[in-house]
Amino acid sequence: MADEHDENEAGAAENAQPAQAAHHDAGKADMDKVTDFAEEKEMAQSTDLNQTMKLLTEQHKRDVEERAVRDRALAAVSVKAEDVQLIVTELEVSTQKAEQTLREQNGDLAAALAVLAN
């Protein structure tokens, strides 16, 4: 009878091992699905990030080009040195700011003073 009991336990242990292995394989398959989903999501985010970076780079290039065109146009505007000095003295701004504002206002002293005063 003890032998029968030992044989039943041994048989049960052998039957439990395949069931545990099947359960383990199912858990592994589930984990693989989750991992695959996470990897696909990361790849999609990476693609979105690359597209965003490309758009930002293009926008930056356009901004630099527009600024260069604007700077060339402003450089073509002539300003009087005495107008720059008047603005610097009266409004206590830098020479660079006074000159830039005068150029932006096409050399118009009254308009430049109004812009800087506000």
TrEMBL record:
<feature type="compositionally biased region" description="Basic and acidic residues">
    <location>
        <begin position="22"/>
        <end position="43"/>
    </location>
</feature>
<feature type="region of interest" description="Disordered">
    <location>
        <begin position="1"/>
        <end position="54"/>
    </location>
</feature>
<dbReference type="InterPro" id="IPR052617">
    <property type="entry name" value="Huntingtin-int_K"/>
</dbReference>
<dbReference type="InterPro" id="IPR038922">
    <property type="entry name" value="HYPK_UBA"/>
</dbReference>
<dbReference type="GO" id="GO:0043066">
    <property type="term" value="P:negative regulation of apoptotic process"/>
</dbReference>
<feature type="domain" description="Nascent polypeptide-associated complex subunit alpha-like UBA">
    <location>
        <begin position="77"/>
        <end position="116"/>
    </location>
</feature>
<protein>
    <recommendedName>
        <fullName>Nascent polypeptide-associated complex subunit alpha-like UBA domain-containing protein</fullName>
    </recommendedName>
</protein>
<feature type="compositionally biased region" description="Polar residues">
    <location>
        <begin position="44"/>
        <end position="54"/>
    </location>
</feature>
<feature type="compositionally biased region" description="Low complexity">
    <location>
        <begin position="10"/>
        <end position="21"/>
    </location>
</feature>
<dbReference type="Pfam" id="PF19026">
    <property type="entry name" value="UBA_HYPK"/>
</dbReference>
<dbReference type="InterPro" id="IPR044034">
    <property type="entry name" value="NAC-like_UBA"/>
</dbReference>
<dbReference type="GO" id="GO:0050821">
    <property type="term" value="P:protein stabilization"/>
</dbReference>
